[in-house]
Amino acid sequence: MKRHLISAADLSRGDAVLILDTAEELASLADRPIKKLPTLRGRTVVNLFYEDSTRTRISFEAAAKRLSADVINFSAKGSSVAKGESLKDTALTLEAMGADAVIIRHGASGAAHRLADWVRGSVLNAGDGTHEHPTQALLDAFTIRRRLRGTAAAGARGAGLDGLRVTIVGDVLHSRVARSNVLLLSTLGAEVTLAAPPTLLPLAVGSWPCAVSYDLDSELSKSDVVMMLRVQQERMNAAYFPSVREYSRRYGLDAARMARLPGHAIVMHPGPMNRGVEIAAEVADSVRSTIVEQVANGVTTRMAVLYLLLGGTEFPATGEAR
Amino acid sequence: MCAASNPVAGRDGLAVLDSEEIRRALTRIAHEILERTHGGDGVILLGIPTRGVPLARRLAARIGEFEGLDVPCGSLDVTMHRDDLRLHPARALGRTELPPGGVDGKTVVLIDDVLYSGRTVRAALDALNDLGRPRSVQLAVLVDRGHRELPIRADYVGKNLPTSQREVVHVLLTEVDAQDSVTISGEGGKP
Fold first, then answer.
1. Domain count for chain A
2. pLDDT tens digits, residue range A184-232?
3. For the ranges A13-17, A72-76, A104-108, which has the lowest average pLDDT?
4. Whether residue A206 sits in one domain with residue A220
5. How far apart are CA B110 and CA B120, in angstroms?
6. Domain coverage including residue A41
7. How far apart are CA A88 and CA A48, in angstroms?
8. Is B153 part of the contact surface with chain A (CB cutoff 8 Å)?
9. How do the pLDDT tens digits run along chain B, 191 residues long?
10. Residue B43's Cα: distance from chain center in Å?
């Protein structure tokens, strides 16, 4: 494994499977009376959040604490960033405090990559602009493997997602989750199809390892997994579709569309959901929906990543990290 | 130089236990566990991955044969509790699987293939501590090769094997390695 986790493309198939297998073993921790392991005792993990987040920040915090690391939470609001401090100066401050890992969420694509040049510890990308969100992709892959390939007790250890068809639906253009998922799921052997209106697909989508369709209905019957993306209205500064109602009618997952999925198929959503826009309430609350499971799996998967990046020997510091 | 002055080279690849001897050692340990625990009431066997797990299963089967007693058996991964984690790149985890009912109030017999520094067993005791409060904990090993670095001893030993610290003891079990044998070889050597 590399020292940082910036992009899902940093992970080889072996790395990704190791993370899923590790998460599988850590999942049993949730049923134990003491949900804590001593592994990262004395290590410091900084949550550096420039953008609002509930689920990801809490998930990383819980993961680090369950491994006994010390967690420092830093949010841009109410810190010196509000006084105009640059990312680099903030990074150097964290460096001086001896952070072993920095988990960064930032509104600018590439922020995590820049940060990796400035700090000595590991950098984990928790979402940078519209670029990537690799741990979300890992927890999605973990959820898919558990649901459709079984748990470790059932022999899923070492397995990828070969032959599974995953359809990612909606606002791909603004979605870091979509990009990370396309990269990771295809690394793991799944066949990924993006279903979205042409206006919500990035220009370079042709170079991604996936198929593209403008018609959700034609993809439903052959999907093992349907992953709905949130329509990110806060990032939309132009009219990408005529109306929310029209979007919902063509690309929203309602009960009628869900009925056309194969019997074993699951419905995923990275959250937060716009109920009634990209996903109907009865779909979100159905047994096929893995939305709550994804949150629980998020903690487990992030524990696996933190353990694999920080649990062993410290990575030799590179010249530019100084 | 005569061979006797260089015991390491002299024992390279030497078989210490063959499959029959492993079988006999496990049979004896199974009897000893029954004897020491007064019939095996409230005993659970926890193997330490990798090779402790099949050993635990074999002991449970043996005890079942002798007394018709169904001894619960599971596995206990100690990786996250090791004291040498920072000396190696992060390792893959093994399985921890407790029998239904957990360890509270039970007599837990930890089972491993080789007892050496005692550090694995120390990690196992810590791991066990987080899972519950057994009434007592005992230790069974197939081979005790000496050189303890911690005040830990085994309750049941298949074979006491005096070794030099430069030697390597290899335990092979059918379930993992397709054959049963214990061999000893010189530094870093393969059997």
1. 2
2. 999 999 999 999 999 999 999 999 999 999 999 999 999 999 999 999 8
3. A72-76
4. yes
5. 11
6. 8-131+296-321
7. 12
8. no
9. 344 444 444 567 789 999 999 999 999 999 999 999 999 999 999 999 999 999 999 999 999 999 999 999 999 999 999 999 989 888 889 999 999 999 999 999 999 999 999 999 999 999 999 999 999 999 999 999 999 999 999 999 999 999 999 999 999 999 999 999 999 998 654 44
10. 17
Whole-angstrom Cα distance, residue A156 to residue A12?
18
Contacts B126 to A, Cβ<8 Å: 38
- The interface predicted TM-score of the complex, written ipTM, equals 0.85
What part of B 74-93 touches A (C-beta under 8 Å)?
Answer: 77, 80-81, 85-93
Residue spans of alpha helices (H) in chain A: 13-27, 55-66, 87-96, 111-118, 134-149, 176-187, 216-220, 244-251, 255-259, 281-284, 291-310
Give CA angle at B85 (B125, A68), nearest 5°: 70
Contact between A152 and B95 using a beta-carbon 8 Å cutoff:
yes
Spatial contact of A149 and A160, defined as CB atoms under 8 Å apart: no
Strands A225-228 and A165-169: parallel
Instruction: Record the tokens describing residue B78, joined without a space.
Output: 């100690």
Contact call for residues A4 and A135 (beta carbons, < 8 A): no
Beta strand B14-17 with B181-185 is: antiparallel
Judge if A201 and A106 occupy the same domain.
Answer: no
**How many Cα atoms within 13 Å fall on the side-chain side of residue A69?**
27
Residue for token digits 């599974």? A164
Q: What CATH number should be reported for the domain holding residue A313?
A: 3.40.50.1370
Residue numbers of A between 12 and 51 with CB closer than 8 Å to B: 18, 21-22, 25-26, 28, 32-34, 36-39
CATH of the domain at B78: 3.40.50.2020
Assess B100–A contact: CB distance below 8 Å, yes or no: no
Q: What pTM did the predictor assign?
A: 0.91
Cβ contact B143:B182 at 8 Å: yes
Coil, helix or strand at residue B131: helix
